[in-house]
Design a protein that fits this description.
Blueprint: E1 7-8, H1 18-22, H2 34-51, E2 57-63, H3 66-77, E3 84-88, H4 91-102, E4 107-111, H5 120-129, E5 135-139, E6 141-142, E7 147-148, H6 151-160, E8 164-168, E9 185-191, E10 202-208, H7 209-213, H8 227-235, H9 245-261, H10 263-283, E11 299-303, H11 310-319, E12 322-323, E13 325-326, E14 335-339, H12 346-363
Helix pairs in contact: 2-9, 5-6, 10-12, 11-12
Length: 372
């Protein structure tokens, strides 16, 4: 069923529009020609504008998954005599720690369990104790469980302590409220295939222009993931390496569609779709892992009910055209994840709940009668 029309309930890649997919089919184009640089300029300008940035901000594109942008930012912006405080409450916070280790970047981590938001007050104490830490790195939406971290408060504390913030907003930018221009924040990383609703293969860093310019003359830790080199080349309508031309063309279309929908409207659509999902799943007896008040509106981690294994539930849902996602790490055998990013609507999420009800019936698990 490779050509099946799956409804993707995993946290990216998300379902896209037919027009975004059709944008992949374009004439072959050399990446050193003006026609390509027009696409690149269009994408970079729209990324900044839709994120709420002014001319003081810029976007730097990378051909690679979201981790490429995260690694480029960390490897490029933390100076050799500096360091980074990583706020870690999930798989992606841990991945930032692994990136620091791989590049021999001085780092210190504050770790929490994967359903607890990071604590800015504790961060302030650690920054005072570790004066050589110049940056703070935090994941906005930790898709390990769907916990949403208080990035605004993190930025406020960092700014007060004279530090700069690097934000992994991979699965939240354009889908959750986020002021990327808040004082303290210098770099925000995301990718095309999450809330932007584009095709996998391109990631990007939205950056305070002065912070990127400050990297001039610094010896790079990486050849391919040198943020400053990509920035300088893209500013000059150039590119250091061969980019994913067709994927960027599809990304431009996705950006145009985001402009048409409006970021605020997309955020509201995701929130309502999430409400429909959670209300319906509660009627089926599913409990949410993350406490109320710490949850995103993009992804929900549900506890598996008694008598249900993830594999059985996944396969029953897939037979109905829906792809759910396993829990990560310690919760793999006890929980599963459902995302409502992408083109999905509240009406689509009602159908998702109906499919869960039918899947439970197939597995042989009785559920309480549902309303309406």
């Amino acid at each position: 069923m490779a050509d099946a029309e799956w409804i993707l309930l995993n946290p990216g890649p998300a379902n896209t529009t037919p027009t975004v997919r059709r944008a992949l089919v374009m004439p072959d184009l050399c990446h050193r020609e003006p026609e390509f640089f027009q696409i690149m300029r269009s994408c970079r300008e729209r990324l900044v504008r839709l994120a709420g940035g002014s001319s003081d901000w810029t976007a730097v594109l990378f051909t690679g998954s979201g981790t490429a942008a995260v690694e480029a930012a960390l490897a490029s912006v933390v100076p050799p005599d500096g360091g980074v405080l990583v706020l870690n409450n999930g798989v992606y916070g841990d991945r930032m720690i692994r990136i620091c280790r791989a590049h021999n970047i001085r780092h210190h981590a504050i770790s929490y369990d994967n359903v607890t938001p990071v604590a800015p007050a504790e961060m302030a104490r650690v920054l005072r104790e570790h004066r050589r830490l110049t940056h703070v790195a935090v994941v906005h939406h930790e898709t390990t469980t769907g916990v949403l971290n208080p990035v605004a408060e993190v930025a406020d504390v960092a700014a007060a302590e004279g530090r700069r913030v690097v934000v992994d907003a991979m699965s939240s930018l354009y889908g959750e409220p986020l002021d990327v221009t808040r004082e303290g924040i210098d770099f925000v990383m995301a990718s095309a295939n999450k809330c932007l609703q584009g095709i996998p293969g391109v990631s990007f860093v939205i950056a305070r222009r002065s912070a990127v310019e400050a990297l001039r003359g610094r010896a790079p830790r990486s050849v391919y993931l040198d943020l400053y080199n990509h920035y300088v080349q893209q500013e000059a309508d150039n590119t250091p390496f061969t980019p994913a031309v067709q994927v960027l063309h599809a990304m431009e279309q996705a950006l145009r569609e985001l402009e048409t929908e409006g970021v605020a409207n997309r955020v509201a659509r995701y929130a309502e779709a999430c409400r429909v999902l959670r209300d319906g799943m509660a009627e089926l007896g599913f409990e949410i892992l993350v406490p109320a008040g710490a949850r995103s509106n993009i992804l929900t981690t549900f506890r598996l009910t008694a008598g249900v294994t993830y594999d059985a539930l996944h396969d029953a849902m897939k037979r109905r055209g829906y792809i759910i996602y396993a829990g990560q790490g310690d919760i793999r055998t006890s929980a599963f994840r459902v995302s409502n990013m992408g083109t999905l609507t509240p009406l689509d999420m009602k159908a998702v709940v109906d499919a869960f009800a039918a899947s439970l019936d197939e597995i042989g698990v009785a559920v309480a009668p549902r309303r309406g």
